[in-house]
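Section handout 9: paired folding examples.
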Amino acid sequence: MNKTMHWLIATLWMACATWAQAQGMSPEEQKRVFADAEQVAQSGPAAIALAQQAQLKLPEGHTFVPQPQAQKLLNAMGNPGSDPRLQGLIFPKGDGQWFMTVRFENSGYIKDDDAKEWNADDLLKSYKEGTEAANEERSKMGVPALEILGWAQPPQYDVGTHRLAWAMSSREKGAPAGAEQGVNYNTYVLGREGYFTMNLVTDLKQLDAHKPAAHTLLAALNFDEGKRYADFNPSTDKVAEYGLAALVVGAAAKKLGLLATLGLFLAKFWKIALIGLAFWAARC
């Protein structure tokens, strides 16, 4: 068995054990989830087909965990429920303190002409309001309420590649001013029938260090011929009910809370995880 894969599973298991138990998952269930993920994980370089829409050329130094094991890993890391859009999770090999979710939203073709007119301040205000409204649901799930602190990077859209990126910083509501901040670095690529989201989860202090990895992985995902944004046929194809600005505020806000909480969680427990890492590696 790949020693690096042992390290990855040990790191995640140590980081998530306390949280998963709080969510009602026994130690035996945790171990089974991570063992199952280890069995199906694919190491780069590898070509991975996604949602019958695109191919991810996973670079060397990265590991991809597909469905359904990916969803079970998210559950073990404190994210309740199930997301049918989820395609998998990407982890760095070694001790990189981040991971990435990969989703496909079958939204239809999204018009991007409103990207020329959006106002980052207005988007931020809407984002904060949406997160505040969602805190009631988070409370029902036993997940801490959040507050949005601001843009870690305002939305940036490349009209030539139809790729979008932005980052939002957050922390648990009521936390001290100096508390750790979580951040999701959101990268999107638009296609003919919908879009992929590749969201990097880490802590704010690590964001600049890990941005290159996010963009490398985004560039490694390409739609199949016939599924590209340029292949859109206005006579036959479905057009999404919302544009790019609404995508930033609406679709992203639905998932921000859980992933932002998870980013804070990983930042808090990663040093503990690394202690277990050395022990696990010694057994390989």
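Moving on to protein 2 of 2.
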Amino acid sequence: MEATGQLIDMAVLGPLSVRVRGVAWTPTAPKVRNVLAVLIAHADQVVPASSLSTELWGDEPPASASTTVQTYILNLRKHFAAATGRSVAEVSNDLLVTRAGGYLLRSRLTGLDLRRYELLALRGRQALADGDDDGAVRHLSEAMRVWRGRALVDVPVGRLLEARRRQLEESRLVTLEYLVDAELRLGMHREVLTELAALTVEHPLHEGLHAQYMRALHLSGRRAQALEVFHRVRGNLVTELGLEPGPPVQRLHQAILNADSDVDGWSAEHRPLVGPRPSPAGRP
């Protein structure tokens, strides 16, 4: 929504943030923040009022939940009206719209970090599909720079926001894997080491990240450390899940043992692994 020629900038890829003409207008009331976070995270989708109630109070909402949700929506409309100099009616028509059974936040006239990230990630994936690693690195790097920390990091989350937060964090990891994969093919082995070292500690069961770290270390002439990374992730998987690493990581391990310099050839056949291995049945 334009405010005298400027955009309302909204962000959830990190701390919740609302800015108008460079001035912070992020709500401070906890439950109003929760409602806004849900609406931004599901921009351009109708969020049922019942879902907002569940997000705020769980399975035992108060009798006044429906009326209270309406009050929070009105408070947000007044907040945006004050920020933009528009009337509450204009905000209701153009930005925070009532739909049958729920509410919809329109992103068309806002600067939404989530939309910028999705567009840049899509461009990066298209560049990869076209075999353009340079273009992929450019777009995917820009996509990663949109993030300012963990999604919704300063908003207490219920079931709805937690599901969306996990979806966004998984998307971030997949995008990062594709970025590192392209960087490695371009010979940027040493440039990715620091980030991969931290990510493998943060995600001890993520085979894809560990495989990329192994490749980067091996291609940087640090074969012994690459083998140590394999043994670390194998130990984590066996201890936590009772699983051995998957065949692609096993083959990469064997290639490093054999001092095979063509681990980039391995990469061409095995695209980034997505996410940690699932727990076997019966395990938490």
